[in-house]
């Protein structure tokens, strides 16, 4: 063990003290992890499941238990290849074995759904002559999913931080913002609310442009219906005429979705932060919301957890879509009915902090639309 280091060193030493050569079966031994990692969590869900992780043939891999949809369940899953490291991952913590001066030749991990979880690395051992000694050394990292600490142990451990490289900069910025805001408020829930407001302010120019575009689209609806009726049997001509109308009226039908699309990276980055960032573990908010990294379950009914925030999010989504310009069209009416139902299923077991962010975005959009509608009525009276 070394003071100030994030890892410890482990060495296996094998010596043949006999008079005859000794060969290990298959010329390899298995070095493996225990079947536990980190503190006992007070919940049981997919976020906290253990999984085998390893660097095999140049890529980061994660083993799964239970077989999956198109494969059968296996007691032990074996994979052969060049292994740079292997270990175990839980929601917040990692245990990783990194070979020194050699590479593993394969991986073995538990494949049954209802069992403990261990990861083993095949370590090559040539036959030992009488009196011969062989050493196999490892660096072993046991700690949180911290990229800087992992890279300090070995540069190949970067992927073990379990953060998609596309959203990593946004996630790091988001966590930094929450930490800074939390210095003022001392509550990550209120910090999320403030961050949501700041995000809305930054995207406000695009939101205004989007709202204007949707209003213009609503005004063009009669002309679009005329074109559809006139060229209903000539799809190619219809598409051309519609594009000509958009160009003439200077309307971009996709601009209405732009603010939502720009928010999606924040959404995925926030999801990653809430699921993997240990600083947000057990972070309380108000009332019944005592852990922003978990669903806001109030009680269970025959194994079904009742969550309040997804219901609030669904209601605000319905109201927000109902107020959207063009909501009187048949397509929009269908969207209004279907989208909230899809959202409540997708969001039901997601971290409560993530849903708070989405609710705030809905509420702010509703307030903005009320302001726009009031301003439009005042302009019409004038």
What's the arrangement of secondary structure elements?
Layout: E1 7-15, E2 28-32, E3 51-56, E4 59-63, E5 76-89, E6 93-100, E7 104-110, E8 119-124, E9 133-144, H1 147-153, H2 168-185, H3 188-202, H4 204-230, H5 235-249, H6 258-276, E10 297-301, E11 304-307, H7 309-322, H8 330-347, H9 352-381
Antiparallel strand pairs: 1-9, 2-8, 3-4, 3-5, 5-6, 5-7, 6-9, 7-8, 10-11
Helix pairs in contact: 2-3, 2-6, 3-9, 4-5, 6-9, 7-8, 7-9
Concise synopsis of the structure shown:
By secondary structure, the chain is an alpha+beta fold. The protein has helices spanning 147-153, 168-185, 188-202, 204-230, 235-249, 258-276, 309-322, 330-347, 352-381; strands spanning 7-15, 28-32, 51-56, 59-63, 76-89, 93-100, 104-110, 119-124, 133-144, 297-301, 304-307. The longest helix is centred in the C-terminal third of the chain and has 30 residues, at 352-381.
Your description of this structure?
The chain is built from nine helices and eleven strands. With 382 residues, the chain is α+β, with helices and mostly antiparallel strands. Strands 1, 2, 3, 4, 5, 6, 7, 8 and 9 form a nine-stranded antiparallel beta sheet that branches. Strands 10-11 form a two-stranded antiparallel ribbon. A hairpin with a 2-residue loop joins strand 3 (51-56) and strand 4. Helix 2 packs across helix 3. 27% of the residues are buried.
């Amino acid at each position: 063990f070394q003071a100030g280091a994030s890892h410890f060193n482990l060495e296996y030493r094998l010596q043949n003290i006999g008079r005859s050569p000794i060969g290990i079966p298959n010329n390899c031994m298995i070095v493996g992890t225990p079947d536990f990692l980190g503190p006992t969590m007070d919940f049981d869900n997919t976020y906290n499941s253990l999984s085998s992780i390893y660097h095999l043939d140049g890529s980061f891999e994660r083993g799964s238990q239970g077989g999956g949809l198109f494969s059968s369940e296996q007691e032990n899953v074996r994979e052969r290849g060049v292994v740079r490291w292997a270990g175990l991952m839980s929601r917040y913590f990692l245990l990783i074995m990194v070979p020194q001066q050699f590479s593993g030749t394969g991986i073995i991990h538990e494949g049954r759904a209802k069992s403990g979880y261990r990861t083993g690395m095949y370590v090559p051992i040539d036959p030992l002559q009488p009196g011969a000694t062989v050493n196999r050394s490892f660096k072993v990292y046991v700690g949180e999913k911290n990229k800087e600490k992992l890279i300090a142990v070995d540069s190949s451990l970067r992927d073990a931080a379990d953060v998609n490289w596309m959203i990593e900069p946004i996630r790091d910025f988001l966590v930094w913002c929450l930490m800074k805001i939390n210095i003022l408020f001392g509550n990550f829930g209120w910090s999320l609310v403030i961050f949501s407001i700041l995000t809305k302010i930054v995207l406000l120019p695009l939101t205004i442009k989007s709202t204007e575009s949707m209003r213009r689209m609503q005004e063009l609806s009669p002309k679009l219906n005329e074109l559809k009726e006139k060229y209903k049997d000539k799809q190619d001509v219809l598409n051309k005429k519609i594009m000509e109308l958009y160009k003439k009226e200077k309307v971009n039908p996709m601009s209405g979705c732009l603010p939502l699309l720009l928010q999606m990276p924040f959404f995925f980055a926030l999801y990653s932060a809430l699921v993997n960032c240990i600083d947000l573990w057990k972070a309380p908010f108000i009332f019944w919301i005592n852990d922003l990294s978990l669903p806001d379950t109030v009680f269970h009914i025959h194994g079904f957890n009742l969550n309040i925030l997804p219901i609030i999010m669904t209601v605000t989504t319905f109201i927000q879509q109902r107020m959207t310009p063009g909501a009187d069209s048949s397509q929009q009416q269908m969207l209004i009915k279907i989208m909230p139902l899809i959202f409540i299923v997708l969001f039901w077991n997601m971290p409560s902090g993530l849903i708070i962010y989405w609710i705030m975005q809905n509420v702010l959009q509703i307030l903005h639309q009320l302001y726009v509608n009031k301003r439009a009525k005042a302009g019409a009276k004038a």
